[in-house]
């Protein structure tokens, strides 16, 4: 026995030095001499778990628990192992037993809360914390944890009340003040959010996390200069704070400073290589980068798949879906945007037109908060499933249990995406459509729903998925049609000069677009250029862009840069729209056409560089699609040179659009449903 304890002590010392393989050997030697040595079983399991050998660790944890069933730690340790393996129900049982043995066991409390939430059992988690608070009314952790559960149920107001109660207990808590600020930001109460974050910084001016959180509030309100300063302050205080580097990258991206943005995001990823969101943000920037080839960008998508998704192939299982090609299909849509969002222009036409004799609709909603649009979405679907706070593994299991046949990603790498669910392949057929406009990079996703213009034949190498080409890639329903009003007369007729314009964000305005647009302004005498969006709210950002044109020889007075609302009023003053490249605009191009304004686009790298071409093909105006930068300038100048023709186009463009495939909701929906049916039939044939 003495020798066994000697090996055990040696293992502990080796573990403390990070010598995990040696510690494992020592614990095994101790157990060879004393098989009923519970502590040695437990520590052996911990060493195995630290090496990622979860399955091997489980029997050792179970043996330790069997030898000491009265030990809360033994039950807790097995629970953590089972939780890591995704065995959430048994993990829950172990945490509950640990708490019965030691009611104040805080790690067990927090892990029980986590497994309940990972299973989507928010009400159970809420009940647990409310019971804990009834037993202990001044339980600080209880209020904080309850607030988190409430936030995941979109009950931000109640969450805020919990945090304010926690602040009464610990008014000088920096973390609590930040959390209050975060909830206020989610509620759109930005002035109060800023005050709360500043209060936290007053308590601890050296808090890098504090400056990061304050800068997030600035970024949410498009105060980009202040946001950049805040993130840089956070980095100065804590150079290895990965989120601050990533957030700085987002601000730089939003300012159109893509080279700097890429550097910041790569730094964030280097500091935390396991951060899938950071890698996704890098992909987002690369989509817009003017100096990357399609092959370079796609290589990074492949890296994302290898780093974060391929590992989940071990969780793939055969699907038990009934292989009847003629039956009603269960279609699941996964999105964080079932709310007032630009996606509504394209998603509502489809969901509202689905033939319930063909499909049964499930909405998996990753929503922060609901609004009036959410109520409409709920009316379109058969099953509404809130997913916020549910782990990828738990959501994948829910989708399997729902028997989904076709699973549709509507987010790509945008915020709130659930690509980790798709990596687990919970449905026989999966596809990505609309919300991102580019490949996801996931080899687990079968199809990319698109059209010939967005994904020309020969471009397949830029997609991890197989492009499935529809006659048109979407149907448009203008969400603001009632407010947009009638098409106005051509501004050039009253101004005496042509006004070009775009409503694009700064991320799309790069050195290539500036150079081409400047050359166009030189080519068309006395013409003006309007650039109007939320990116240009502050004077400093406006002037920075203006000086880039001045450097190209364009007089400052020919530029109208700003941010005005509603955008339709800005469009009324524009004669010809200008699309961006290599990443085309999206919703604003539809709005431009609907207001009677033709636009010129450059067909660039698929698929985000071909969105403008797709729309123009759909409305029947391929003559406005350029193939080179010089061709772009020539086509835009030609339009500007015939104001009588421009006036005719303006008067007839909305009716033409309304009669085109772009606004034929019924036909588009039937085409999508036919595609779903063919995809499912293909799966049935491949899996007899």
TrEMBL record:
List the Gene Ontology MF annotations in alphabetical order: protein O-acetylglucosaminyltransferase activity
Q: Which InterPro entries match?
A: Glycosyltr_41/O-GlcNAc_trsf, OGT/SEC/SPY_C, TPR-like_helical_dom_sf, TPR_2, TPR_rpt
- PROSITE patterns from the UniProt entry: TPR (PS50005), TPR_REGION (PS50293)
Give any Pfam family that matches.
TPR_12
* Family, similarity comment: Belongs to the glycosyltransferase 41 family. O-GlcNAc transferase subfamily.
* Name of the protein in question: protein O-GlcNAc transferase
Q: Note the segments forming the TPR repeats.
A: 4-37, 38-71, 72-105, 140-173, 174-207, 208-241, 242-275
- Keyword terms of this UniProt record: Glycosyltransferase, Repeat, TPR repeat, Transferase
Q: In which pathway does it act?
A: Protein modification; protein glycosylation
EC number from the UniProt entry: 2.4.1.255
PANTHER family associated with the record: PROTEIN O-GLCNAC TRANSFERASE (PTHR44835:SF1), UDP-N-ACETYLGLUCOSAMINE--PEPTIDE N-ACETYLGLUCOSAMINYLTRANSFERASE SPINDLY-RELATED (PTHR44835)
O-GlcNAc transferase C-terminal domain residues are 308-465, 498-671
């Amino acid at each position: 026995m003495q020798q066994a304890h000697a090996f055990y002590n040696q293992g502990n010392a080796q573990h403390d030095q990070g010598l995990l393989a040696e510690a494992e050997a020592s614990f095994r030697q101790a157990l060879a001499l004393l098989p009923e040595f519970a502590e040695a079983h437990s520590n052996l399991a911990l060493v195995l778990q630290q090496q990622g050998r979860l399955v091997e660790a489980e029997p050792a944890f179970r043996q330790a628990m069997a030898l000491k069933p009265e030990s809360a730690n033994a039950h807790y340790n097995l629970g953590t192992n089972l939780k890591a393996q995704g065995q959430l129900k048994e993990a829950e049982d172990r945490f509950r037993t640990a708490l019965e043995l030691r009611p104040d066991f805080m790690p067990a409390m927090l892990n029980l809360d986590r497994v309940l939430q990972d299973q989507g059992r928010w009400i159970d988690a809420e009940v647990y914390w409310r019971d804990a608070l009834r037993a202990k009314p001044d339980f600080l952790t209880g209020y904080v944890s309850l607030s988190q559960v409430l936030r995941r149920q979109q009950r931000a107001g109640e969450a805020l009340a919990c945090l304010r109660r926690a602040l009464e207990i610990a008014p000088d808590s920096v973390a609590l003040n930040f959390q209050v600020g975060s909830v206020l930001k989610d509620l759109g109460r930005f002035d109060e959010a800023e005050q709360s974050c500043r209060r936290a910084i007053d308590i601890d001016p050296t808090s890098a996390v504090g400056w990061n959180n304050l800068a997030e509030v600035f970024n949410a309100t498009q105060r980009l200069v202040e946001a950049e300063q805040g993130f840089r302050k956070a980095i100065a205080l804590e150079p290895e704070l990965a989120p601050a580097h990533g957030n700085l990258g987002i601000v730089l991206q939003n300012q159109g400073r893509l080279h700097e943005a890429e550097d910041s995001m790569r730094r964030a990823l280097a500091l935390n290589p396991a951060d899938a969101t950071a890698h996704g943000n890098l992909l987002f920037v690369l989509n817009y980068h003017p100096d990357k080839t399609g092959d370079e960008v796609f290589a990074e998508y492949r890296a994302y798949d290898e780093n974060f998704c391929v590992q989940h192939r071990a969780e793939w299982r055969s699907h038990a879906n009934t292989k009847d090609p003629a039956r009603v299909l269960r279609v699941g849509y996964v999105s964080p945007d079932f709310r007032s969002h630009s996606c509504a222009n394209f998603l509502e036409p489809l969901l509202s037109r689905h033939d319930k004799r063909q499909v049964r609709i499930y909405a998996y909603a990753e929503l922060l908060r609901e609004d009036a649009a959410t109520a409409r979405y709920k009316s379109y679907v058969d099953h509404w499933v809130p997913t916020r706070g549910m782990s990828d593994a738990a959501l994948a299991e829910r989708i399997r249990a729902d028997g989904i046949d076709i699973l549709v990603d509507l987010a790509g790498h945008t915020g709130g995406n659930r690509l980790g669910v798709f990596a687990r392949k919970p449905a026989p057929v999966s596809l990505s459509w609309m919300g991102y406009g580019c490949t996801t990079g996931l080899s687990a996703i079968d199809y990319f729903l698109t059209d010939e213009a967005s994904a020309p034949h020969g471009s397949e190498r830029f997609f991890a998925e197989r492009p499935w080409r529809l006659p048109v890639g979407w149907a448009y329903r203008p969400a603001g049609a009632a407010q947009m009003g009638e098409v106005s007369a051509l501004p050039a007729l009253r101004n005496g000069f042509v006004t070009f314009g775009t409503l694009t964000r700064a991320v799309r305005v790069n050195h290539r677009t500036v150079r081409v647009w400047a050359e166009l302004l030189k080519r068309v005498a006395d013409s003006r250029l309007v650039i109007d969006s939320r990116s240009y709210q502050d004077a400093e950002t406006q002037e920075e862009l203006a000086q880039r044109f001045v450097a190209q020889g364009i007089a400052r007075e020919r530029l109208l840069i700003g941010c005005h609302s509603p955008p339709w009023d800005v469009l009324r003053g524009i004669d010809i729209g200008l699309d961006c490249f290599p990443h085309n605009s999206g919703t604003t191009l539809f709005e431009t056409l609907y207001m009677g304004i033709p636009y010129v686009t450059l067909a660039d790298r698929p698929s985000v560089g071909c969105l403008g071409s797709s729309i123009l093909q759909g409305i029947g105006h391929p003559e406005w699609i350029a193939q080179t930068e010089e061709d772009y300038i020539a086509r835009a100048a030609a339009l500007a040179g015939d104001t009588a023709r421009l006036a005719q186009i303006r008067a007839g463009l909305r009716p033409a659009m309304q009669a085109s495939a772009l606004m034929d909701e019924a036909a588009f929906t039937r085409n999508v449903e036919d595609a779903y049916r063919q995809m499912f039939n293909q799966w049935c044939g491949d899996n007899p």
